[in-house]
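During the no-cost extension, the postdoctoral fellow (Dr. R.K.) reprocessed legacy sequence entries with the updated structure-token encoder. One reprocessed record is reproduced below for audit purposes.
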Amino acid sequence: MKTTTQENIVANEGMARRSFLKFAGAGAIAAGVLATAASCQKHGGVVGDPTNIDLGTGDIAVLNYAYALEQLEAAFYIQVIATPYTGMTATERAMLTDIRDHEVIHRDFFKTALAGNAIPGLTPNFSKINFADKASVLGAAKAFEDLGVAAYNGVGYRIQTLDYLVLAGKIVSVEARHAAYIRFLLGQPFLDSTVVTTTTSIEISMTPAQVLPVANSFLSGLPLVAPALGA
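Re-encoded structure tokens follow.
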């Protein structure tokens, strides 16, 4: 069982990142595909308007969009494990630690792939969440996971590079498993009309224009904008 000391948190993040980069081949992807794409696209994270952070254009915009959401989720779960809610069981702690490690890996993958095109590190603001209260933590986790799945589904069609589309599909599948587990902890149905359409049984998607205001409400500092993605 991992401890909650800051040293171990940092160590676990580093190990998770190295493992993912090794098996996903992120280094090769970042050095090749995105380098070509970046040569003809707007640099992500450039603050042309000093009142916001522009995610960029093309694949860079999509990757920065995902990177921003993964930063938010990683920070949330790091806090959850560092300050466990009252009554957290050993099983819950183990599963939430796994989710934390997944989100850290996702965050670091996008940062590595984007390299110099990445937006800055964001400053989360979780003042609306009571991390000592199970219902508050799991309610926030459900909101973050459902938002993440809907966000990936809503922007996937904009990905121009096949390698990234495949990786996005694999990541959103993991996020959906997280969402199902959180619903299990809450004693709620894995599927309902808030996440799956009743007529087609297809996962509901959200556009960047719908997602970014929610994400920005949990961030301090400049808001994220994505004009190239319609938000």
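The helical segments are 6-24, 26-38, 58-82, 90-114, 134-155, 162-186, 208-216. Strands lie at 53-54, 123-124, 219-220, 224-225. The remaining legacy entries will be reprocessed before the final report is submitted.
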